From TrEMBL:
Cofactor(s) required, per the database record: heme
UniProt GO molecular function: heme binding; iron ion binding; monooxygenase activity; oxidoreductase activity, acting on paired donors, with incorporation or reduction of molecular oxygen
InterPro entries named among the record's database cross-references: Cyt_P450, Cyt_P450_CS, Cyt_P450_E_grp-I, Cyt_P450_sf, Cytochrome_P450_Monoox
Keyword Iron: yes
SUPFAM superfamilies (alphabetical): Cytochrome P450
Binding site for heme: 431
Keywords in alphabetical order: Heme, Iron, Membrane, Metal-binding, Monooxygenase, Oxidoreductase, Transmembrane, Transmembrane helix
Record's protein name: Cytochrome P450
Pfam families named in the record: p450
Organism whose genome encodes this protein: Oryza brachyantha
Family of the protein in this entry: Belongs to the cytochrome P450 family.
Length: 488
C-alpha cells in the first residue's frame, strides 16, 4: 500500500499531500488554501456518500472549462439547479439506448470499425492510445447521432479537433483573466469555434436523416415497442426513433440551438476522453497479461456462439468481462480527486460537521479505491475476481435495473455496499453515462477478443515485461499493439 501511494504521489503531488494529512488527522481533513478558501477532503466511505449527495454543485472552474470550450451549455456546469433536468432526460435517453432490442444498433458501430481494422492491421501495428480514442469516439458519437454518424465525411476531422480541444480545455480555463492577447489562446478559441460548426453540421445531419420517423411521438416505451416489433423496419429505424430523445435530452424544455450544440460538445469531450482512457488501460493489460485475455476469451466463447451476433444479453452474462472493466476503472479513475461544492448553502453532515458554502470539497479517489480495509491487502493489484466475490456486489456496482436473460438483476438502484467504488462518482452529480460506458466498453472488448488476440509489438515486449509486476500500472505506457486475427 505504501509503495503504491508513494508511486502515485510522484504524479499527483496533491494526492500525496492529502494522503499524509489523512494519515495524521483521520478521514475528514480541513485545509485553509487562503484566508477565504477552505478545502475539505473526505476519505471515510459513509461520509463520502452523504457528502456527494448533499453537495450538489461542481467547482466553478469545471463549469468555466466546459463553457470556454463549448459555449452555453446545460450539463457539466457548476450549478446543480441548472443541470438537473438535462441530467434526467439524458439518463432516459441513454437507458433507452441500452434497452433490450436497441442494443444491437447502439453498438453496431463497433463491428463497423472493427471491420475497417483488418485493412489497417494488415500493414503494421496500432498505437494503443489512438485506437482507444477512435473506438471511444465512435461509440459515443454513434450513440448520440445514430446512423448519421456512420457515413459522415468530416468524422476524422471532428475527432482530431475534439481531442485537441479536450487536451487544452483545462489549461485555458484556469486563467483567471482571459488571455486574449496570447496567440495560442486565440488559436484554441478558433478550434473551439470550428468544433462548434462541425457539431452543428452533424446535429443537423442526424436530425434530417432521422426526421422521417418524427411522426412517432408517443411515450418512449411505446416508441421502442412499436419499432422493435415491426420487422419491416431496419436497425437504422430503431436508431432514428431513439435519436428523437437525443434532442429532448440535449434540448430540455427551453433550449436554444446554441445550448443543444454545447451540451453535445460537452458530452463528446467528456465521454470520449474518459472512455478512451479506460479502453486503453484494458488493452494495455491484455498486452501485459496474455492469461487475462485467454480467460476472457473462454468466457466470451462460452456465452456467445461463434456465428451469432453479439448481444447485450450475452455481455450481461459475461461476469468476468464486466468485472475486468470495473476493476480497470477502479485502478484508473478519471482524475485523482472527485470535486464538489455547495455554492449557496452550508452542508451539514450527520457526523455533525458543518461545511461552509463555497468550500472546495474533494474525495481523494486513489486513497478510497485503494484502501486496504475495503479492498483487501491486494488493493493496489489488478484482480477482477474481487468483483465476483460475495462481499463486493458486481450487480450493485453496475447500478440501475436491467435484467439480463439469465434472470439475474445485474443492475439495481440500491448500491449500499459500493460507496468505495467511485470512478464514476456518486450522488447528485454522479456520471450519467456509467452504465452506458461500462456496457459499451464491455461490448467492444467482447467483439474485439472474439476475433483478435492483442499482442504487444515485439520491439516493446522487453520494456513491457519490466512493468508486469510493478505498481506503476496506473500510469500504463502507450504500447504499440498488434491485433492478430484468431484462427477459427
Ligand atoms: C469510462 C467512462 C466514464 C467515466 C470514468 C466517467 C466519469 C465521470 C465522473 C467521475 C463524473 C463526475 C461524477 C461526480 O462528480 O460524482 C462524471 C459525470 C458525468 N458523466 Fe461521465 N464518465 C464516463 C463516461 C461517460 C459517458 C459515455 C457519458 C455520456 C455520453 C457521460 C456523461 C456524464 C455526465 C452527463 C456527467 C454529469 C454532468 C453533470 O452533472 O453536470 N460519462 N463522469
Amino acid at each position: 500500500m505504501l509503495s503504491c501511494v508513494c508511486g502515485i504521489s510522484l504524479y499527483f503531488p496533491i494526492f500525496g499531500y492529502l494522503s499524509k494529512l489523512h494519515g495524521s488527522y483521520g478521514p475528514v481533513v480541513r485545509l485553509w488554501l487562503g484566508p477565504t478558501q477552505l478545502l475539505v477532503s473526505v476519505k471515510d466511505s459513509s461520509v463520502i456518500k452523504e457528502l456527494l449527495t448533499k453537495a450538489e454543485d461542481k467547482l466553478p472552474l469545471t463549469g468555466r472549462t466546459y463553457n470556454l470550450a463549448c459555449g452555453k451549455l446545460g450539463l457539466f456546469i457548476s450549478s446543480f439547479e441548472k443541470v438537473k433536468s438535462r441530467r434526467e432526460s439524458l439518463k432516459l435517453f441513454l437507458d433507452e439506448k441500452l434497452s433490450v432490442g436497441s442494443i444491437g444498433s447502439s453498438f453496431k458501430i463497433i463491428q463497423v470499425v472493427l471491420d475497417r481494422i483488418d485493412s489497417i492491421i494488415a500493414r503494421d501495428f496500432l498505437d494503443c492510445r489512438s485506437f482507444s480514442q477512435h473506438m471511444a469516439f465512435n461509440i459515443v458519437g454513434s450513440a448520440l447521432f445514430g446512423d448519421a454518424f456512420f457515413d459522415w465525411s468530416d468524422a476524422s476531422a471532428y475527432e482530431e479537433l475534439m481531442m485537441t480541444v479536450a487536451k487544452d480545455a483545462c489549461f485555458w480555463a484556469s486563467y483567471p483573466l482571459t488571455p486574449f492577447w496570447k496567440p495560442d489562446y486565440r488559436r484554441y478559441r478558433a478550434q473551439c469555434a470550428q468544433l462548434k460548426i462541425l457539431t452543428q453540421v452533424i446535429v443537423t445531419k442526424s436530425r434530417n436523416q432521422n426526421g422521417v420517423l418524427s411522426f412517432i411521438d408517443h411515450s418512449s416505451h411505446q416508441r421502442s415497442e412499436r419499432t422493435i416489433n415491426d420487422p419491416c423496419r431496419g436497425v437504422s429505424h430503431v436508431d432514428g426513433v431513439i435519436s428523437r430523445p437525443l434532442n429532448e435530452a440535449a434540448e430540455g424544455p427551453l433550449s436554444s440551438e446554441e445550448e443543444i450544440c454545447g451540451n453535445i460538445m460537452g458530452l463528446m469531450l467528456h465521454g470520449i476522453s474518459t472512455c478512451a482512457n479506460l479502453i486503453g488501460n484494458i488493452l494495455t493489460r491484455f498486452a501485459l497479461y496474455p492469461n487475462l485475455q485467454c480467460q476472457l476469451h473462454s468466457e466470451i466463447v462460452a456465452d456467445c456462439s461463434e456465428l451469432s451476433e453479439l448481444k447485450l444479453d450475452d455481455v450481461l452474462r459475461m461476469k468476468f468481462l464486466l468485472a475486468t472493466v470495473c476493476e480497470s476503472a477502479r485502478l484508473l479513475p478519471a482524475g485523482p480527486l472527485l470535486q464538489r461544492c455547495s455554492l449557496q448553502q452550508d452542508v451539514n453532515l450527520n457526523s455533525s460537521i458543518t461545511i461552509p458554502a463555497g468550500a472546495i470539497l474533494v474525495v481523494p479517489l486513489y486513497l478510497v479505491q485503494m484502501d486496504t480495509s475495503t479492498w483487501g491487502d491486494d488493493a493496489c493489484q489488478f484482480n477482477p475476481n474481487r468483483f465476483l466475490e460475495k462481499n463486493i456486489n458486481l450487480e450493485e456496482i453496475l447500478g440501475t435495473a436491467h435484467k439480463g436473460s439469465n434472470g439475474i438483476n445485474l443492475f439495481t438502484n440500491e448500491c449500499d455496499e459500493t460507496e468505495s467504488f467511485l470512478p464514476f462518482g456518486s450522488g447528485s452529480r454522479a456520471c450519467v453515462g456509467q452504465r452506458f460506458a461500462i456496457l459499451g466498453i464491455a461490448m467492444l472488448i467482447a467483439s474485439l477478443l472474439r476475433s483478435y488476440e492483442v499482442q504487444p509489438h515485439p520491439a516493446l515486449s522487453k520494456e513491457m515485461e519490466s512493468l508486469v509486476d510493478s505498481n506503476s500500472l496506473h500510469h500504463l505506457p502507450n504500447p504499440k499493439i498488434i491485433l492478430k486475427r484468431r484462427s477459427i
